[in-house]
Structure formats: structure tokens, C-alpha cells
Design goal:
binds iron/sulfur cluster; six-stranded mixed β-sheet; four-stranded parallel β-sheet; about 425 residues
Length: about 425
């Protein structure tokens, strides 16, 4: 628990039927009284606070469910989608106790291994009875009594949340710092062009710098045109070079083959998802034929830019790889594609805006539909013939990939000229 708080907030979902007191509880937790109408969701994103010693947490209020009989209908669907974002759940119970709806939610949390804190609202005239408490304890849960209107029980609730923070969050893989020793250095190649946001680095780049600094390593941040000068001027060999996917092959052609190199998107594939699964998913590119339908899934909406990676560049590189254009469908937004089984392959963005549970839930959906999934960085590296190079920093995954690729149609050659340009150090 003394670990450094993560950069990514812990997502805590507040569940319960309509008007059960979720918004009041959220107000109590965030000490921001009166921001929400009773019974209304706060917004679609959530409310961030600092919860020591966890660091930043994001409370997700969910639409209440009117139908007490079952999880069904549009509101319930909204709630179920929120579950995919949730890493720790609060289930608010009032006088209704444990009905079929609450049991359905508890089952959904259990299936996904989401820890849950049941909150018994003691503000109401009729309070949850002892039988409810017994049933919760029988399920291995420890209910906490809270009166949102009187402000009572808050300390107990905070303590329960800290105690139940999931290991998957506390011990989540770091982004980059385990690949660079203390006092070591990474070179980060970032695109700062006319499409880049003004006055700041985008999330993957700033997170990588922060992760390195947190672990007493450091970064040299360069744009691609300055990479050669930067490398030539170094007195020390970098432990790692990380590039944006768009410049992958050009950077790979200049960095010496014995210097570990990968992309920001591949770092996210490991930190937020499952690197091995994404590596296996990339093998499905070998089975694609011209005209096959694939999905490019992006977790947020943005205006396409010229030479957009998901819309233009990856489809082009894949088309060149498989020998003809593919049928490419774009899907954008917080919610994952419906019916992934319609596609031969799902290629996901780097997921900088998603938490690990959300990415794993998307992988789970694809597994259930029997569809391979990989991500942008992996697909770029595979289609450009630098896949093994991009996996060099992750030897266990590289070995597994090599084994899995033995029966594959094409093996990945290193790109011509990739070792022709050594890096001076
Ligand atoms: S969530 Fe995905 S599409 Fe949105 S900025 Fe991050 S990587 Fe790009």
C-alpha cells in the first residue's frame, strides 16, 4: 500500500437501483454537495478525487435501474457497460435489501472478479434488515453502514475501499520503467507536427517521461528529424528507444539492431492489455485475404487528420501486406464494437484513455466471439516486417510468438537496411 500511486485513476463504480442514494453517496465521498439532482447520473465520465493512499480515483455514477425484477432494458445496458470500466464496485442497498436486481449485479461483479463494497444506507426510515446482512456475509462480503444525509460512516467506507483495491490495479505493469534501469536513459521519438495538440505532450509521451523519472531513469525526447543528431551526440547507449507507430520503420532503420526498440502503442499493449494475446492476434494478419472485413476500434472520438493512422496508414500497410485492399470498418467511442464476430480481425488503438479493466473486457469480448485482437502498434510492426524487432524488449513474448508463428504462412524478415545504419555512441 506504500507503493507510488498510479498515474491512471482507480475506477470505482457506484451501483444500485434508481433513487437508492447513489448520487448522495457520491456527493458525500467527493464533498461536493448539491452538484447532482437526486437520482440523476452525474455525467458519463465520472468524478475524480484523491483517496489516500491510493492516489487518484474516479467515481462512476451509474443510471439507476427501475425494473426491480431483472437486469434488462436500455438503462440496465448502460449500467452493464459501466461495469466493464469498473475496477472496484460500491453497491448501495436501501430498504429493498437484496432483490433479484442486486443479486444480478453481485453475480456480474463476481464473474468479472470485481471486488465490491455493499453499502447499507441508514438514512432511510426502513433500513436493510439482518437477513440482508447475513446474505451479504454469506457471499463473503463485508457491508458498511453509511448515512449520506448525516455524513456518517464515511471513514469506514473509505477504509473498505482502500482495503479492497484490487491487486490488478495496485500491481499493474508499469509503462516503461522496468525496461530502463535506474540511471538509465530512454530515447523517446515523438511527432510534433501541425496535428499535434498545442503546448503539451500527448498522454503516452508524458506518461512515459513521468514513469522514467519516478524510477530515477531519464528520457531524451526528440522529434524524428532530430533523432539522428540526438543519437550521434550521445555518450551513452540508450537502454531503449520508443517511437510513435507512424515512424516505426524509419526509426528502426536508423537505430542499431542491438539497441532495444519498440513503440508507445506496444508499451500500452502490455500495460493496459495483454501483450501475448495481442502478439498472437497479429499472427491473424497472415490469414487475411483481400476483401476480408476487419475493424479498427478507437476508444475515443477525434477528428481524422491527414494520413490518419487508423483510417489511412494501417489499412494501406495491411493491404500491401495481404496483396489487396481489405474492407475496413471504423468504430470509435467509449463503447466497444457490437458483434465483434463479424470481423476477421479487430485492431485496437493504443487505449490511452482506457483503464486496464476496460481493455481486458474488450479482449474478453473478442475471445468470446472467437475473433483475434491486436493493437495499432503491433499491426504496424507486423505489416512493416519489424515485428520481432519491436518485441525484443519482451523476450518471453517474443519466444511465445516465435513458437506460435512456426506454422504461419510468412515469417517476419527484418526490414532491408535495418542494420545498415548503425547508431554511433
Ligand atoms: S484512446 Fe485510442 S484513439 Fe483515443 S487518443 Fe488514445 S490511442 Fe488515440
Amino acid at each position: 500500500m506504500n507503493a507510488v500511486p498510479r498515474g491512471e485513476p482507480l475506477h470505482i463504480g457506484i451501483y444500485g437501483r434508481r433513487n437508492v442514494g447513489k448520487s448522495s453517496l457520491l456527493d458525500l465521498l467527493t464533498r461536493q454537495q448539491g452538484l447532482a439532482e437526486p437520482g440523476a447520473p452525474v455525467d458519463g465520465v465520472g468524478k475524480p478525487i484523491e483517496l489516500s493512499p491510493l492516489g487518484s480515483v474516479l467515481f462512476l455514477d451509474t443510471t439507476g435501474i427501475e425494473d426491480a425484477g431483472a437486469l434488462g432494458g436500455a438503462q440496465a445496458e448502460h449500467t452493464m457497460k459501466a461495469i466493464e470500466r469498473t475496477q472496484l464496485a460500491i453497491l448501495v442497498l436501501a430498504e429493498q435489501g437484496l432483490g433479484s436486481l442486486e443479486v444480478g449485479l453481485l453475480d456480474a461483479f463476481e464473474q468479472r472478479e470485481i471486488p465490491v463494497v455493499p453499502v447499507l444506507d441508514t438514512s432511510t426510515a426502513v433500513k436493510p434488515d439482518d437477513a440482508t446482512v447475513d446474505r451479504l456475509i454469506h457471499r463473503g462480503l463485508k457491508p458498511v453502514r453509511v448515512s449520506a444525509s448525516k455524513g456518517e460512516g464515511l471513514a469506514d467506507l473509505r477504509e473498505a475501499l482502500v482495503a479492497l483495491a484490487p491487486d490488478a490495479y495496485l500491481n499493474a505493469p508499469t509503462m516503461i520503467s522496468d525496461l530502463v534501469p535506474p540511471d538509465g536513459m530512454a530515447v523517446l521519438v515523438v511527432p510534433i507536427d501541425k496535428d499535434a495538440p498545442k503546448g503539451r505532450l500527448i498522454l503516452p509521451h508524458s506518461q512515459a517521461v513521468r514513469d522514467l523519472l519516478d524510477h530515477d531513469a531519464y528520457a531524451i525526447v526528440v522529434k524524428e528529424p532530430e533523432l539522428r543528431d540526438a543519437l550521434d551526440g550521445l555518450k551513452r547507449r540508450p537502454a531503449l528507444v520508443v517511437t510513435d507507430s507512424q515512424a516505426f520503420s524509419r526509426v528502426a532503420a536508423y537505430v542499431a539492431p542491438d539497441v532495444a526498440m519498440t513503440s508507445f502503442s506496444i508499451l500500452y499493449a502490455r500495460q493496459k492489455g495483454d501483450l501475448l494475446q495481442f502478439a498472437r492476434g497479429a499472427l491473424a494478419i497472415d490469414k487475411l485475404k483481400p476483401g476480408d472485413r476487419i475493424a479498427m476500434a478507437e476508444a475515443c472520438s477525434h477528428h481524422p487528420v491527414a494520413q490518419d493512422l487508423g483510417r489511412t496508414q494501417i489499412p494501406r500497410w495491411l493491404g500491401q501486406y495481404v496483396g489487396g485492399p481489405l474492407e475496413v470498418e471504423q468504430a470509435q467511442g467509449r463503447y466497444f464494437i457490437e458483434e465483434p464476430g463479424r470481423y476477421k480481425l479487430v485492431i485496437h488503438c493504443g487505449s490511452c484513455m482506457l483503464n486496464r479493466r476496460e481493455v481486458l473486457a474488450r479482449i474478453f469480448e473478442c475471445n468470446r466471439a472467437g475473433v483475434p485482437i491486436t493493437n495499432y502498434g503491433m499491426a504496424v510492426a507486423y505489416s512493416l516486417g519489424i515485428f520481432e524487432r519491436a518485441l525484443q524488449p519482451f523476450p518471453a513474448v517474443l519466444d511465445a510468438y516465435r513458437q506460435a508463428s512456426r506454422g504461419s504462412k510468412r515469417l517476419q524478415p527484418m526490414p532491408a537496411g535495418s542494420s545498415a545504419h548503425g547508431m554511433k555512441i
